[in-house]
Amino acid sequence: MDLFVIRHGQSENNKLYAETGSRAGRTPDSELSELGHEQARRLAEAVREDRSHLDVEVLHTALTHRCLQTVAPLADALGLEPIGRTDLGEVGGLYAAHPATGVRRPYPGLSTQEMHDIAPSLTLPADVEQGSEWDGGFEEEHAEAQRRAAAVLDDLASRHGDRTKIGILTHQHFGQLLIGAAVGIGEAGRKFELSNSSVTALRHEDGEWRVLWVNRVRHLDSDQINA
């Protein structure tokens, strides 16, 4: 199985941090910035023009606003119906932080109607009922995200076998954990550069994972590449 880990385009929160160095004013479920929409469009256009850029047969996606906005044009270019998953969200899940104390509290995600407004062909996961909203996947402990990353890899390997090409639209930090879990380095931290709308390729064969490439952004101009 070839697994392509795709990061969403630049979000408004990413833009805020790049401009201010602060998370003050962040939103719990940020939308794409103008640049993020362009990055998503460029990725989809590259795939439409040359399928070998991201030749996948199945496309999974996180349910955050920015991931759905990124996956919608990509799925259209691929001619695939993206499969929503509650286990591909960012480390920590959706949260709102108290402005004075910084204490995090869970924050709900999009409703199923809002998800389909963004990505009309989205297949809802079994654990999100039609007409309800995603709970946001809040996590208290970092170890929960590490276990989640390992479980995602195990699930994909058992579900799809070694012959399928899978794309997953996810987040920067969780993407780090997926790579770390795959190659057995435990807590990957931020050891890998995963730019917005980048593609990283892993291969699962004969029970083992290996990295094919990391952070491919050849669909972007140099001034469109950001962390």
From TrEMBL:
GO terms for cellular component: cytoplasm. InterPro entries: His_Pase_superF_clade-1, His_PPase_superfam, PG/BPGM_mutase_AS, PGM_Phosphatase. CDD domains: HP_PGM_like (cd07067). SMART domains: PGAM. Pfam families: His_Phos_1 (PF00300). Substrate binds at R7, H8, G9, Q10, S11, E12, N13, N14, T20, G21, R66. Gene3D superfamilies: Phosphoglycerate mutase-like. GO terms for molecular function: phosphatase activity. SUPFAM superfamilies: Phosphoglycerate mutase-like. This is Histidine phosphatase family protein.
